[in-house]
Amino acid sequence: MMMIKHLDISISMLTRKPGQTLTMMKCAEQFNITGYVLFRENASIKIEVEGTHENLNHFLQTCHSLPGLDNSELIPSESSIIKGFRQFSIVDCK
Question: pLDDT tens across 65-76, in order?
Answer without folding.
Answer: 877 776 666 667
